[in-house]
Structures are given as structure tokens and as C-alpha cells.
Design a protein that fits this description.
Largest sheet of chain B: none
Shape of chain A: globular
Radius of gyration of chain B: 18 Å
Number of strands of chain B: 0
Shape of chain B: globular
Structural class of chain A: mainly alpha
Helix content of chain A: 55-70%
Strand content of chain B: under 5%
Radius of gyration of chain A: 27 Å
Distance between the termini of chain B: 51 Å
Number of domains of chain B: 1
Helix content of chain B: over 70%
Largest interface: A-B, 15 and 17 residues
Oligomer: heterodimer
Largest sheet of chain A: 2 strands, antiparallel
Number of strands of chain A: 6
Order of helices and strands of chain B: HHHHHHH
Structural class of chain B: mainly alpha
Strand content of chain A: under 5%
Number of helices of chain A: 25
Distance between the termini of chain A: 64 Å
């Protein structure tokens, strides 16, 4: 508890770098980032020691009047995640942030500390007021961080879009908290868990809470701020936002679902599950269409948050069906995947930052062959991409495999044929999501890092400074470590969900789970052994024939292959675009710059645009309607004070006459 | 009391017709004087001591002497004001005031049948409405100020009658409020005279972006 409180103090000290004199800019940056590293390490350490060996009932218990700081295991799981991500992203930022020298770098590192502080504060707040206050600070500080490069027009508009969206979310959360809090003894979480909210009001509270937290975690259709805000923000900020802030929304929703609303109603879980599944699939589909590296990652965050919420919803449904052991697995899966996503998405945003740092561009169509120029970054990115496509030996598979298993058992336990059909549909969606994610990251890695350089920006690319590599290296190491021995993490997360009384049920050697007894964590040992045996067999059998090596250029109808003949990112995603035309609705426009003959001497430009489905079908009509109705209000509002007094007068007369007539 | 109401209604009707600034202020002062007298009358009939004379005294000092005095000083400075169009809607104002009087009586009949002070209630509704209509329809800042004070007087009279004397703190608050509002308005109006050479509020529309 003391450790956690003093880490808050260190964050506050780090925030003070905003006030440092201008000539000590670089020192301020280093000091700020060091504070963030130390404090995040302390947060992670205190959460870990509480989770593995709890000496007291609460991680932190402190109150001032009616305001509480409380940390239970659910908070501790997220504190662990935030602390670890805070450490390696801050190490990365030591070097990455130097790119902002002379561009308000002091504000950047000061706000960075405040941002992590507000995240930690959200996770340990023990009453509605503290929660909302920290939540709002988190929203405002992340807005300022997204808006850091405020000289660019796109950045400003993305930041303001984020600001508006996140405040809509906060408003929804406020309504939910108010509804629950007004039906309980006080606004402390302990009292709010004994609320007597029933019927319609409970449904409304659930819908508002889910909408608010889903907006913050970027679930469709409330995701539109996410693919715009992430490219606009500095890379380490996007890493933290995507890796941690989105999970904080899961924390809040979990707190609501476990403590305040309860899971007795069947359709609550169903709604969460369906929204999650749809976000997962559509998110990865849009990710595959993008060519901006950070937008790909942002849409991939939508996908992964979708998977996490789908598992969480599955758990809620299982709870409402009274299938407690199965629900524990589903919730554990959500938590494990959240943890591994914070590692791998942090890693990928950092490597996107490294690529941007090296080439000055985010567009993967302009890259190619980066692996030769920056080998370490390439390896770390490969690990991250493998994890995000949930391949074996990375953390990505652990969570996703558990999610799939909980859906399988759900299908086995589903009582009615309708429910079973639904789960099969969910299964298909999850499968397509996984396959598309694999394609998406093969595309990202292949186009950017393999092949030949497409433009000259690759020529000046260089390997990154030590701290950036170190940050990425730690993240990549953790991803691989969790991929090879997942059981410690899984056991800790299960303990968070089920409490210390239930013994760890994860079996590190099981491959698949039948729905009873120990569930299977995918068994990396067996797969690793299998791979080793196959590899050994192949090597032995191939080496017997003698070495046959011939290095030559690929045959290309007698011409030398050039970099223009490589598979482009847009070309790679063409089959998917064709298959899902109905959803993606791509707009293609060809423009002839020169056309001497219908077969040769042509020069043309092809513009391809994929409009966001929800942007066109949901947001634009609403915005249009709002603008139209405001122009109606403009007619009433002429800016003349006499007119306004006149309105008051008319209102008074109407009220008086109404009073007389009644 | 009934005589006071007659005078009050007469003064209010006069106010809707006056276009000269000085006369408007004098009308306002006499209206406030009638209110002050009503205050004394009501005060002595319901309570004794300081509370009995306090509202009347305050009205006398603030609304009869101080505010009209300040406005009159301002009007004195407005001599070389640019000539503005004469108010064309004076007749409409008077007609509206007549309607308001009828409405006031109708409201009293319906809401408070058999109420002893029905004339006073009707008169105060007339004052509130006329004050509002002066603020809305007239363009010159001084007349609009007069409208505000009329509205204020109406509300005050109604409150006094309905509650048989407000608590002293509330009364002090109300007077302080009006006083400050008018001081600010007088300052703003003289600024406006300096900037625009007129107190016609319709020129303020130019300021709109």
C-alpha cells in the first residue's frame, strides 16, 4: 500500500517537469521519463506481490471523508498490466521523445506522468466521484497528448473528435453511476454493490454503462475516434492509449458488471458478446484495408477489444445460466487476452513509431525491405505481428485459445437450438477474425519489412537508438515468455476471477478442454517438441541429398524484376475487398492522365477509398440532422436582447393563461 | 389603497405614451413613490417597528431618489444626442397595456376568487407585463431601463402583498440587486453614448460578428 501511494507521489513529481526552465528541456524529459519508469515499476511490483502473495485483504485502502481509494484483485490485475506497459513504453520514450526537442517536450513528459497517474487513479478509486474525476483527468490529458503535434490540421481535428466522443462516453457513464448510486446508501463502491436497482432502471443503467465503456474501448459502432486519434498521437502515447487505456474501460465495465449490475439477466451478456464479436470481425476487416501503419494497428485494437468483450460477454451469459466453472474460464480468457494485448499492441505501436522515426512516413506502400536496414526492429515487429495473428509461441495465442475453448464449451452446454446456432455463428466469426488477422499482419510485415525498397525514404532508414530498442525488446521478450510458459499468467488471472479458494485449474499440458476438470492452456511444450522433431527430421532427410544451392534472380519473363512489380499492400487485400464488397463498399475512381491509345501510352491514377460503414450510415446522418436542426434554431436566435426578453414575456403570458384556463 | 392603485395604473399608462426621456424618468420616480406609499401603508397595517418602515424607506431612497437621480444626470448629458426616429409604436404599447390590465383581472378572478387585494394584484401584473413590453419594444436604453424598474416594482408589489412583508434579508437583497443592476446599466449607457453618439440600442446590432 505504501509502495503504491508513493508511486502516485513519484508520478506527481514527474508531472512537475512541465514547470522546468526551457534551457533544461532535455534534462526535464529524462527526469520525467525516469519518474514514470520507476513509478510504473513500483505499481507493477506492488500489484504482482499482492496477487501472488496477498498479505492484506486490500491492495490499498485509504479514505478521506467520503472519498475512497480501494484496490481489490480486479484492480490489481489491471494495475499489473498498466505498470508493466508503463515501464517498457517509458523506456522506449526516453529516446523516442527526444524527437520532440524544442516542441514542448517538457509538457509531453509531464503530461505523460499525469496520464499514467490518472490511469492508476481510475484503477484504485473506491467511489463514484473519485472514479469519474480520475476518468475525466485521463480523458483530458490523453486529449492533450493526442493534440501534441497541434500544428497539423489532421491532428487537431482527430483530437477534437476524440474529445467529443470521449465526453459522450463520460456522460453515459455518469448516468449509469447516478442511477446505481441513487439506489444505494452512498456513492462508495462498497455501498453501490448493495443497490436495489431493479427492472427498467437497471436495464437503462446497464445500457448506459456498456455504451460508455464500449466507447472508450473502441467497440463498434462507437470506435470512430480510435483510428483517427492513434495516428495523430505521438507513438508512445498511442502505445499507452491502445495498450492500457482501452483496458481501463474493460476494468470499469467489469466493475459495473461484477459488482453493481450483476449478471442474472441473460440478454446483458448476449449484447456484450454480440457487439464484441461484430467489432472483432469488422475491426480486422478494416485493418486489412488500411495502408497507414498506425491505422492498421488502431483497427486491430478494435478487433482485440472485440475479442476480449466477446469472451467477457460469454462469461456473463454463462453466469446467467448458472455455469460458474465455465464462466470462470471465459472471464480468465478475457483477462489473459487483455494482458497479452497490452504487451503486443504496446510493442507494435512502438515499432510503428520506430519505422516512422526511421523513414518519416506511416504509409506502408512507400516502404519495403526495411528488415535489412533495421534488423532488430524487424525482429521485434515480427514477434509482435506473430502475436497479433495469434501464432504459437507468442502470448497472442494463449488468450485467444482460451476464448475459443470457452466458446466451444458454451456450445456444448447451450440448452436451446437457437442458442447453439448463435454460438456456432460466434465461432465462425471468431475463426474468420483469426484468419483475417493473420492475413493482415502478414501483409503489414511483408510489405513494410520484406521485399525491395519501394521509394527512396527507405534508403535513409537506420537502426534505432538503444533505449527504443530496449523498450521494444522488453515487450517482445515478455510476449515470447508468456507464449512459451503461459501458466503463471493464466493462474494469476484465474485467481483474480475465482479468488484464492479455487485452485489453479489451468493444465499446461492439455490441448483442448472438454468442459469439465482442468481446462487447457495451449501446451507450448508439446508443440515446441513437435516442431523440434519435425525440424530435425526435415534437416536430416534434406541434408542427405547433398547441398543444392543456386542463387539467382526470380524468372520474370526475361526481364529484371523491379520493386514496382512487388505485391502491394492494396493488391494483397484485394481478394478480401472483393469478398466483402457488400460491407466495405469500396469507392474506386480511375483517372486517365494520358491516353494515346486504348492499349498503350496510357498513364492513369487509381483512387481507392474505403469509407467507414458506421461513419457513413450512422454518424453522418446524425450530424446532418443536427446541423439542419441548428439552423432552425438560428432563425429563433437572432442575437438581439430585446427579442430574447420578448421570448421570456411570451412564455410568461402563456404560463399565466395556461394557469388561468386550467 | 384603491386610490393608490388608480394612480399607479394611470402612471403606468402614461409611461407607455411618454417618449421624452426626462418625462419618462419623472414618471418612473412617481411610480416608485406610489409603491413607497403602498409599502408604508401595508407595513404599518401588518407589523410594527423597524420592519414596518424599512421597505418603504428603502424604496424611497433607492427607487425614488437615487435611481431616477442617476438616470436624470445621464439624461442631462444626452443633450447633444443625435436625433433619432420618434417612437412609432407608442399606440401599440398603450393598447398592449390595456390588454394586460384586462388579463390581470381575469387571472385574479380565476386564480384568487374573492381575494381582497385583487386590484393590487391586477396592477402588479400590469406593471410586470408593461415593463417587459417596454424593454422589448422600445429602442432607447433609458426607456428600457425604465421598463426594467417597472417590472421590478411590479414583482416587488406582488411579493409584498402575497407574503404580508418579506423577510428583511430578502428585501435588502432585492434592493441591492436592483441598485447594482441600474448602476451597471447607467455606466454602460454612458459608455454607449461615448462610443456610438446615441443610446439607441438597435445600433448595437453592428457589433454582431
Amino acid at each position: 500500500m505504501e509502495l503504491l501511494l508513493s508511486s502516485l507521489g513519484i508520478y506527481l513529481v514527474g508531472t512537475l517537469t512541465i514547470l522546468w526552465p526551457k534551457r533544461l528541456e532535455l534534462a526535464a524529459h529524462y527526469a520525467g521519463m525516469l519518474c514514470a519508469i520507476v513509478a510504473s515499476g513500483m505499481v507493477a511490483w506492488s500489484a504482482l506481490s499482492y496477487l501472488t502473495n496477498p498479505v492484506s485483504a486490500w491492495l490499498i485502502e485509504w479514505h478521506w471523508g467520503d472519498y475512497y481509494l480501494l484496490g481489490d484483485t480486479w484492480s490489481a490485475a489491471f494495475l499489473l498490466l498498466a505498470g508493466i506497459a508503463g515501464v517498457f513504453i517509458s523506456i522506449y520514450a526516453l529516446d523516442y521523445g527526444k524527437g520532440y526537442l524544442g516542441e514542448r517536450i517538457r509538457a509531453l513528459s509531464g503530461l505523460w506522468n499525469l496520464f499514467i497517474l490518472s490511469i492508476v487513479a481510475v484503477l484504485i478509486s473506491g467511489d463514484a466521484f473519485t472514479f469519474i474525476l480520475s476518468w475525466e483527468i485521463m480523458a483530458l490529458v490523453s486529449f492533450l497528448l493526442v493534440n501534441h503535434e497541434s500544428g497539423k490540421k489532421d491532428t487537431v481535428s482527430a483530437a477534437y473528435q476524440y474529445m467529443v466522443m470521449t465526453h459522450i462516453g463520460t456522460a453515459a457513464i455518469l448516468v449509469a453511476f447516478y442511477l446505481v448510486g441513487s439506489h444505494s446508501a452512498s456513492f462508495g463502491f462498497a455501498d453501490m454493490s448493495h443497490n436495489d436497482l431493479t427492472g427498467m432502471m437497471k436495464n437503462i443503467a446497464f445500457v448506459f454503462a456498456f455504451a460508455g465503456f464500449a466507447l472508450k474501448s473502441g467497440l463498434m459502432p462507437l470506435h470512430i475516434w480510435l483510428p483517427n486519434a492513434h495516428p495523430a498521437a505521438p507513438s508512445h502515447v498511442s502505445a499507452l492509449m491502445s495498450g492500457v487505456m482501452l483496458k481501463v474501460a474493460l476494468y470499469g465495465f467489469g466493475r459495473f458488471a461484477f459488482q453493481f449490475i450483476g449478471m442474472d439477466t441473460f440478454w446483458y451478456g448476449l449484447v456484450v458478446m454480440l457487439v464484441g464479436l461484430i467489432s472483432a470481425f469488422l475491426g480486422v476487416l478494416y485493418a486489412t484495408m488500411e495502408s497507414d501503419m498506425k491505422r492498421i494497428l488502431a483497427y486491430s485494437s478494435v478487433e482485440n477489444m472485440g475479442i476480449i468483450f466477446a469472451a467477457f460477454g460469454c462469461g456473463m451469459v454463462l453466469m446467467s445460466l448458472q455455469l460458474l466453472p465455465l464462466a470462470i474460464v471465459a472471464f480468465t480468457a478475457a483477462l489473459v487476452h487483455a494482458f497479452s494485448h497490452s504487451l503486443m499492441k504496446g510493442l507494435m505501436f512502438m515499432s510503428a513509431g520506430a519505422v516512422m522515426h526511421a523513414t518519416g512516413s506511416k504509409n506502408i506502400e512507400k516502404m519495403g525491405g526495411l528488415a535489412k536496414k533495421m534488423p532488430y526492429t524487424a525482429i521485434f515487429t515480427l514477434i509482435g505481428a506473430m502475436a497479433l495473428s495469434s501464432l504459437p509461441f507468442t502470448s497472442g495465442l494463449v488468450g485467444e485459445w482460451m476464448v475459443l475453448q470457452s466458446f466451444i464449451t458454451f456450445a456444448q452446454q447451450a440448452g436451446t437450438p437457437e442458442l447453439r446456432l448463435l454460438v456456432i455463428f460466434a465461432f465462425i466469426l471468431l475463426g474468420m477474425t483469426g484468419a483475417t488477422a493473420l492475413g493482415c499482419f502478414v501483409r503489414l510485415y511483408g510489405v513494410a519489412f520484406l521485399g525491395r525498397a519501394r521509394t527512396s525514404i527507405v534508403d535513409k532508414a537506420h537502426e534505432q537508438p538503444a533505449f527504443m530498442l530496449m523498450g521494444m525488446g522488453i515487450a517482445a521478450g515478455l510476449v515470447v515468455f508468456m507464449g512459451i510458459c503461459p501458466d503463471p499468467v493464466v493462474n494469476i488471472m484465474q485467481r483474480v476471477i475465482a479468488g484464492p479458494a479455487v485452485p489453479p485449474m489451468g493444465s499446461p499440458f492439455g490441448i483442448i478442454w472438454g468442459g469439465s476438470g482442468q481446462y487447457a492452456i495451449y501446451s507450448p511444450a508439446i508443440i515446441l517438441g513437435l516442431v523440434a522433431v519435425t525440424g530435425l527430421f526435415l534437416t536430416v532427410s534434406l541434408s542427405r541429398k547433398g547441398r543444392f544451392v543456386q542463387r539467382d534472380v526470380t524468372w520474370n519473363c526475361g526481364t529484371e524484376p523491379t520493386s514496382r512489380q512487388q505485391y502491394t499492400a492494396t493488391g494483397f487485400s484485394k481478394p478480401l475487398r472483393r469478398a466483402f464488397t457488400a460491407i466495405l463498399n469500396p469507392k474506386r475512381r480511375t483517372e486517365y492522365l494520358r491516353k494515346e491509345h486504348s492499349y498503350f501510352g496510357r498513364k492513369m491514377e487509381v483512387h481507392l477509398e474505403i469509407p467507414d460503414l458506421f461513419n457513413d450510415k450512422l454518424y453522418k446522418p446524425v450530424v446532418t440532422w443536427m446541423i439542419n436542426s441548428s439552423s432552425a434554431f438560428r432563425r429563433v436566435q437572432q442575437g438581439s436582447v430585446s427579442l430574447y426578453i420578448g421570448y421570456t414575456m411570451v412564455a410568461m403570458i402563456v404560463v399565466l393563461i395556461w394557469g388561468v384556463l386550467l | 389603497m384603491e386610490y393608490l392603485v388608480v394612480f399607479l395604473v394611470l402612471v403606468v399608462f402614461l409611461q407607455t405614451r411618454v417618449t421624452d426621456l426626462k418625462r419618462a424618468v419623472i414618471c418612473l420616480a412617481s411610480q416608485s413613490l406610489i409603491i413607497a406609499v403602498a409599502c408604508f401603508a401595508l407595513g404599518f397595517s401588518t407589523s410594527t417597528g423597524l420592519h414596518a418602515i424599512m421597505p418603504g424607506l428603502l424604496t424611497l431612497v433607492v427607487k425614488v431618489i437615487f435611481i431616477p437621480g442617476a438616470i436624470l444626470r445621464l439624461v442631462g448629458k444626452l443633450k447633444n444626442e443625435r436625433e433619432i426616429l420618434s417612437e412609432s409604436n407608442v399606440n401599440y404599447s398603450t393598447m398592449a397595456a390595456a390588454l394586460f390590465l384586462v388579463m390581470g383581472y381575469a387571472i385574479v378572478e380565476r386564480l384568487l376568487p374573492g381575494f381582497a387585494g385583487r386590484d393590487i394584484v391586477a396592477a402588479s401584473i400590469l406593471m410586470i407585463m408593461t415593463g417587459l413590453s417596454l424593454m422589448v419594444l422600445r429602442k432607447r436604453a433609458i426607456i428600457q431601463m425604465a421598463g426594467l424598474i417597472t417590472l421590478e416594482n411590479g414583482i416587488y408589489l406582488l411579493g409584498l402583498l402575497m407574503t404580508d412583508g418579506l423577510p428583511l434579508v430578502v428585501e435588502l437583497g432585492v434592493f441591492l440587486d436592483v441598485l447594482i443592476a441600474v448602476v451597471v446599466l447607467v455606466i454602460l449607457t454612458s459608455r454607449m453614448r461615448l462610443s456610438f453618439m446615441t443610446t439607441d440600442t438597435s445600433v448595437m446590432k453592428k457589433l454582431k460578428g
